[in-house]
Amino acid sequence: MADGTEQGGVTGEIAPLVRGILAGLGENPEREGLLKTPERVEKSLRFLTHGYGLTVQDAIGDALFEEDHHNMVIVRDIEMYSMCEHHMLPFFGKVHVAYIPNGRIVGLSKLPRVVEIFARRLQVQERLTEQVASALMDVLEPQGVGVVVEAAHLCMMMRGVEKQNSKTVTSAMKGVFLDDRATREEFLRLL
Ligand SMILES: Nc1nc2c(ncn2[C@@H]2O[C@H](COP(=O)(O)OP(=O)(O)OP(=O)(O)O)[C@@H](O)[C@H]2O)c(=O)[nH]1
Ligand SMILES: [Zn+2]
Fold first, then answer.
1. Residue 111 contacts residue 175 (beta carbons within 8 Å)
2. Closest residue (by CA) to atom 6 of ligand 1?
3. What is the pLDDT of residues 17-47, one digit of tens each?
4. For residue 116, what are the domain limits?
5. How far are the Cα atoms of 138, 169, 182 from residue 72, in angstroms, in the given order?
6. Pair 114, 84 in one domain
7. ipTM for the complex shown
């Protein structure tokens, strides 16, 4: 996120392991260019997984407002960077989040913040999609939630099957987005 400087304490637990990886790769961890790499990698990994330390309640705070609005609210094209739990390589793309309020609305910026909580950890795309939808159902108690994630997986691009143009699309529909076909279609059309 825009205010996401590399946070998360460097405890030093990971850096020695990275030194081991460098040696295992046949590199010389003592050469000048690599001297600070273990600490850099630890700091970077702590940032890329800082979602473990965040809760949805903290992210939303008190930004829930009583409002008699019963139409669909969509925040689309939320950029997302996550890491696949199988290869620890990035997957990244866009998240589209919609909900229909039930007496209260949420501060719009909180929707990308909820995405960050679940993206910034080791993930599979399906679980990320489901977790964002479930969390919003729990906290907003809306009429329904729809979440669509479109992502490219580096583990399918720079290694493995090496497909450069495939996108994976996942969705999670809750409440009226699941029960009412017209609502679901309106959401998908507005994307
Ligand atoms: N369902 C799902 N699979 C994922 C995701 N990210 C990576 N994968 C897949 O996880 C699978 C792991 O398969 P394995 O056969 O255990 O690992 P692998 O030998 O490295 O597989 P290849 O990538 O096919 O070389 C691969 O098919 C990946 O494409 C994800 O977000 N969701
Ligand atoms: Zn992977």
1. no
2. 84
3. 999 999 999 999 999 999 999 999 999 999 9
4. 62-190
5. 17, 21, 12
6. yes
7. 0.92
